[in-house]
Design brief:
The protein is of the alpha/beta class. About 50% of the residues lie in helices and about 15% in strands. The strands form three sheets. The chain has a six-stranded parallel sheet with strand order 2-1-3-4-5-13, sandwiched between helices. A six-stranded mixed sheet has the order 8-6-10-11-12-14, sandwiched between helices.
């Protein structure tokens, strides 16, 4: 009788504990202290079960199962921010990405995740739409998760992010666009653009017997990569002593529709076009489709960045493929080395020629 009464009291007490945790769960997430009270063990034992170290602490399988069951039934989730604060390193590496709208940035994101996981790191990526305010807000959010390193890819104002990271004692690195306060890993835009321009000029002279200046279209005038590609474009013309009218340079953004409208407004159709981005290439294709077939066939173009469909255009004579694997390989080498000097390293691009 006494045993039965004791069991009944114990059952009632456990029911009350379960009810208390459920009541707490209605207003806030349960903690390891709540679970410890419910299961009848110490918070340390609960923590060991939840982080997977319970076997080393010689906690029984029965107790571990009981803790895990209680955690599942009561909706317990690990508080990541609190967890990383208790560790020296979070093993989280963050990346700010400007866009997902082309193959280059998509490949950057995929390669970043692959290499981060191979290095035992957890990758976190956020897209900031080339908005400086959003870039800074994203950097603050990533820092709140105690990232070990933050990579600014194509950031419009990387130095403000570097200042923020430095104040927080977090490593930072610039990818694709340079900054002045952290290491920068970039494609060799100048050489890639110069070599592509040479190919287009050669094709125009070979196929049409003309050495006219090419048209440069796409990009922003204040963008570092556009400036470097334009510098390479002009250098190839200077080599052949071809003067370049300002009207042959159109840098009003990357948007396809802007490119199409600019081309439609041109009085004289060029024989050769340097397209500064596969995004801009979309607008060029729409424009080419509006031309008579015979006139469209007398145009040669090349594009900085690679797209397999763009490579199939009959007007295409070459595309510059940026070395995504090389860029990310060097990025993780710099992260591992701990280098923080504001030096810029260039990674060579590859020139892709049509196979037809």
């Amino acid at each position: 009788m006494i045993a039965s009464e004791f069991e009944a009291c114990q059952y009632a007490r456990n029911q009350r504990k379960s009810s208390d945790v459920n009541d707490k769960n209605s207003s806030k997430r349960p903690t390891i202290y709540d679970l410890a009270e419910l299961v009848g063990t110490s918070p340390t034992a609960v923590s060991s079960v939840l982080n997977g170290s319970w076997k080393k602490r010689r906690i029984s399988q029965k107790l571990a199962d009981k803790v895990l069951k209680a955690a599942q039934e009561n909706g317990y989730t690990v508080n990541i921010q609190a967890s990383v604060l208790r560790r020296e390193r979070s093993n989280i590496v963050g990346m700010i990405l400007p866009k997902y709208d082309n193959r280059f940035f998509g490949a950057i994101a995929e390669e970043f995740e692959t290499r981060a996981r191979a290095a035992g790191l957890f990758p976190v990526i956020t897209c900031t739409q080339r908005d400086p305010a959003l870039e800074l807000a994203a950097a603050r959010e990533l820092l709140s998760y105690q990232v070990d390193c933050l990579i600014s890819t194509g950031a419009t104002d990387p130095d403000q992010i570097s200042d923020l990271c430095r104040a927080a004692g977090v490593k930072t690195l610039n990818l694709d666009l340079p900054g002045t306060k952290a290491p920068s890993i970039l494609s060799d835009n100048f050489t890639g653009a110069r070599d592509l321009t040479r190919i287009i000029l050669d094709a125009c002279e070979r196929d049409f017997g003309v050495v006219d200046p090419l048209l440069f279209i796409g990009g922003r005038k204040d963008d570092h990569n556009t400036q470097e590609r334009l510098r390479g474009f002009l250098a190839a013309h200077t080599e052949r002593e071809i003067s370049m009218p300002q009207s042959q340079i159109i840098s009003e953004g990357y948007a396809p529709e802007k490119a199409r409208q600019s081309l439609m407004a041109m009085r004289r159709i060029p024989h050769g076009i340097f397209v500064n981005s596969t995004i801009t290439l979309e607008g060029v294709v729409y424009w080419l489709q509006s031309l008579p077939a015979e006139r469209a066939s007398r145009i040669r173009c090349g594009t900085f960045d690679f797209d397999p469909f763009g490579a199939l255009l009959p007007q295409n004579v070459g595309m510059v493929r940026q070395d995504v694997q090389g860029l990310l390989a060097r990025t993780f080498e710099v992260i591992k080395s701990g280098k923080d000097s504001a030096e810029t390293e260039l990674v060579a691009c590859h020139l892709e020629m049509p196979s037809f």
